[in-house]
Structures are given as structure tokens and as C-alpha cells.
Amino acid sequence: MNDKKIAFITSVNDEELYEESKFYVEHLITPEDIEVEFVKVKDFNSITSAYNEGIRRSDAKYKVFMHQDVFIVNKNFIQDILHIFNLNKNIGMIGMVGCKTIPTNGVWWEASDCFGKVADSHIGSMEIINFNEVKDIYEEAAAIDGLIMITQYDIPWREDIFQGWHFYDVSHSIEFKRKGYKVVVPKQQSIWCIHDCGRIELDFSYEDSRKKLLDEYAEEINPLKVT
């Protein structure tokens, strides 16, 4: 594992969008001793299988799993995430927004204790989503959103369970916790990322994945119902 390399791993089906996302990364401030690698994964039918392919392709210790419609606007992004990882070797993954307690329905953003911030266009227009403020350098989370997930350890994505594009992020957050690692959201003076996803229409696969999440992680999400 190369601890002087950071890989930006993206599942791509829109080349123009990906090139714009890549442009933002190329203009980040990069420490002199750090190598930046781009891993573009195409022709995969699930984000979990695409991300596992990304892990196989890169020996970078630090991996940024990001959607092709995410634009990193914090020029110091690389230094900031490396600083957080270096503060505590038990921090396994970083995200921009998340929750401290996963609701019993598995939908992280419906929690009462969400925190972090991001610019997002899921309602059809761009807006700044401000959850509760992170008061310290970072806040520990039970789950983070999948728009961007930054790791310093390789843990397999559960493609055996999630074959689509939903709830893989909550799953991966719990997988890191199962391995004893912390998942955190950093303090952001201003937003670090823009997520230009556009209005999202949910199909039957969303509910199917939600049920799989609740089945696999019942003990973590709703321990009172586990006998």
C-alpha cells in the first residue's frame, strides 16, 4: 500500500461530466510528496462492484470514492483529509454529511442528528444543505452520504448484497464500524464539495435495497428489535 498516493475512484457513464469533475481535482493543491491517481471505472452495473474494481486497480493508501457529478471546491482538500487521517489512525473514512444515529428505516438524512454541509441539486436547483455544525475538527458519524467517501483502509464494498445504486453508503459506513474504525465528518468553514446530481427519481430498487440494508444490519440499526 502506497502511503504517498491518493486515488480518485469514480464510476463513469457520462464522460463530459466526469471530465469536469476531474478538472476540479487537477486544480487542487497537492503536497509535493503526494501522487494523485485517477481511476475511472466503466461498464459496471452497481456502484459496489465498480468501487471494488477501483480498489483492485490502485495501490494508493488513500482512496476518494466519488460520484462523477461531484466537484471539489476546497483547494486544500487533499491536505485537509490527510491531516484528519493523521490525527487518528482509527479514523477509517471521511464524508461531507452524515448522521450520528441511523434511523430505524435506514434513511440516514431523516435522522434528527445530521451534521455537515454540501451544495446539492437533488431538488432540481442548487442549494446549500446545512445540517448541524461540526464544532471540533471532525464529528464521528454512524453513516455518511455516498456523494464522496474517503478512506485510508481498504474494506470490500458489499456487492454481494447491493447490486444497484442505493444504500451502499450506509452499508459501507457500518462495515467500517464493524472493523473497529471511526467514520467522521470534518468541520467545514465553507463547503468542500458541490454535488450537481439534479432531481432524483427513485425506483423499485431503492426500496429493495433499503430492505436488504435493514436485514443485514438489523443489530446496528435497530438493536432493540433483535432477539
UniProtKB/TrEMBL annotation:
Pfam families: Glyco_tranf_2_5. It comes from the Bacteria. Residues 7-217 form the Streptomycin biosynthesis protein StrF domain. InterPro entries: Nucleotide-diphossugar_trans, StrF_dom. This is Streptomycin biosynthesis protein StrF domain-containing protein.
